[in-house]
Every structure is written in C-alpha cells, then in structure tokens.
Design a protein that fits this description.
The chain has 325 residues and is an all-alpha fold. Helix content is 57%, strand content 1%. The chain has one domain: ADP-ribosylation/Crystallin J1 (ADP-ribosylglycohydrolase fold). The protein has a two-stranded antiparallel ribbon. Helix 2 packs antiparallel against helix 3 and helix 9 packs antiparallel against helix 10. It is globular, with a radius of gyration of 18 Å.
Length: 325
C-alpha cells in the first residue's frame, strides 16, 4: 500500500503515542505515587519498576518485541513470525525486566523451564493454553497493552490485521476475550492511520457471531456513556479497553490534536489502578489518529526505554512496519 505523508505521520505516531501514555502512567501504577488531578500526569518515573523519568514499562517493551519482527515485513501469523515474537518475548523476560504482569510471568516462566526441543512459539502456545486451563483466567490486559502496533501490519487488509492481533495475543493470553479486545483495538488503529477516523465499532464484525458482537457493542456503549472513573477494574482486558476508549472518546472534541492527546491521557491516568497500561493503550490509538506531529512536544522527545531506544527509534519501527518492512 502506498502511503501519503499524513498516513506515514499517523503510522509513526502509534508506538510513540503508546510510549508517551505508558511513561505518563508509570509513576501512578497501582497507587505507587499519589496522582494530582490539578497538575496532571508527569514523566517522573518510579512506579512499580523504579523507572527513570520518561522511561516506558513492560507495556511498550513487549510492543517493541512485536514491532521488531513486524518491521521486517514478516507475517505475524506465520511460523516465522510467531517464532520471532516468541523469541523476543523470552529474551525480554530473561533480561530481567523491572515489572512483568503476573499472568505473562507465569507463562514465560513455564516456557523458560522447558527442556524439550519443541519450537519456541509452539511451546509458548502450549504454556499459554495450560495456564488458561489451570486458572481459567487469561483475559488480563497484558495482550491488549502490546497490540496497537499490530494495527500497522496490514494497513490494506482488515482481516489480516485481525488474524495477526489474535495470533500475537494468544502467545500468552489464550482467552477469547483477550483476542477480541486486541482485534478491536488493532482495527481501530488501522482505521485511524488509513482514514484518520476514530472508530472502535468498525471491528465488531471481525469478532465471533452475533451474540459476541452484541456483547462487545454493549461494552463500548457503556464506555461512552459512563464516567471514565467507572472503569477502575482495568486489569481485566474488557475493562482496560473500556477505560482507554472512555478517555479517548470523552475528550475527542478538544480544539487541537495536542490538546486531545493531553486531555485523553490525563483522563486515562486519572482512572487509576493499571495507569500505565490504560494510558499506553489509549496513547497508541491517539498516535494513530493524530500522528507524530500531533503528540505534545513536552513529552514525546523525552520517552525512552528497553532495549535502549528513544522516540525516534519507535517512529522508525512503526513506519517500517506500516511499509511492510
């Protein structure tokens, strides 16, 4: 797909917007530090991982693992793509990240302990399924948090985008709800980049049957109707999606792109609980809608993180992904 300059700008904003939201949410995750609504979120670092000011957390770290494969043009649903992402996830985990979600930790710990010769991506899928069977709980927000960049892998093919979103989610989060949330958000990112439109319902037909689509439609309706602060139980992927969408939707009439980004991220962080994840998910979609040029200059150049990347590196990975490598 040939991209216009505006589409390239919007594609470049996806990972960077996510990282900005992530780093703004880091200091306040699970009440790590008190949040001052009057001052708004700050790039102060700290949080559960003792991060440096402006440093992104596991949300963007895992998204980078996906992006480094996608930026080569590799199909994320192929064996090569799945192996590449799985290898990235395990290498990241074994590097000793400061913070790892509990469910993701369980799956990757089990993979790291295996001594057989099963291909790594197949082993990861097996352990993802086993953890789901063992606990019945694999619909945390850990797949959703890394999905915005998946919206760039097939800008001219919404079905391929959906397949990729579900395949990457399932490597650690087997539950259908986790995959559904990733399909909806990745499609919203794709649509924002291609058309400059903000539309979360556009991916409903990519989910299961009518009952599933109606259930998700009702959840989106709720997110648009209720105060964003309602969605504090956002460790669950459905509520995390609702919290992020509520923040983006509630502030969409802001006067400028920069004001929309700032107000939406302020709203996302103010929801509380898993502040870095909600703001990261929201930030990825905001970056897709407004582009690099629409991200506030007081934040965007200052973000950085594992594996030694800065804002320009994220833009490069995102644009390469959008161009199919």
């Amino acid at each position: 797909m040939d991209l216009t300059d505006d589409q390239v700008d919007r594609a470049g904003g996806v990972l960077l917007g996510q990282a900005v939201g992530d780093a703004l949410g880091v200091p306040y995750e699970l009440g790590s530090a008190p949040y001052d609504p009057a001052a708004g979120p700050q790039l102060d670092g700290g949080g559960l991982g003792g991060y440096a000011p402006g440093e992104w957390s596991d949300d963007t770290q895992m998204a980078v693992c996906v992006a480094e494969v996608a930026a080569t043009g590799t199909d994320l649903t192929s064996a090569t793509g799945q192996l590449g992402v799985a290898t990235g996830f395990l290498a990241w985990f074994e590097s000793g990240p400061a913070d790892v979600g509990a469910h993701t930790r369980s799956v990757l710990t089990a993979v790291a302990r295996r001594g057989d010769d099963t291909p790594l991506h197949e082993a990861m899928l097996q352990e993802s399924w086993a953890e789901h069977e063992r606990t019945g709980r694999s619909a945390g927000n850990g797949a959703l948090m890394r999905t915005p960049v998946v919206g760039l892998v097939a800008l001219d093919d919404r079905e391929a985008t959906a397949r990729s979103a579900r395949a990457v989610a399932r490597l650690t989060h087997w539950d259908t709800l986790a995959g559904d949330s990733c399909v909806l958000w990745s499609e919203a990112v794709r649509r924002a980049v291609v058309d400059g439109e903000l539309d979360l319902r556009g991916g409903l037909d990519l989910l299961g049957g009518t009952e599933v689509q109606e259930r998700w439609s009702a959840w989106i309706d709720e997110a648009e109707r209720e105060d964003p602060a309602t969605f504090v139980g956002n460790g669950f992927t459905v509520v995390a999606l609702q919290a992020a969408w509520a923040a983006v939707h509630r502030t969409r009439e802001a006067a400028t792109p920069q004001e929309h980004v700032a107000e939406a991220l302020r709203t996302a962080v103010a929801v509380g609980h898993d502040t870095d994840t909600v703001a990261a998910v929201a930030g990825g979609l905001l970056g897709a809608l407004h582009g690099v040029s629409g991200l506030p200059e007081r934040w965007a150049p200052r973000v950085h993180g594992w594996p030694g990347l800065w804002s320009d590196d994220l833009v490069r990975l995102a644009v390469l992904t959008a161009h199919g490598g």
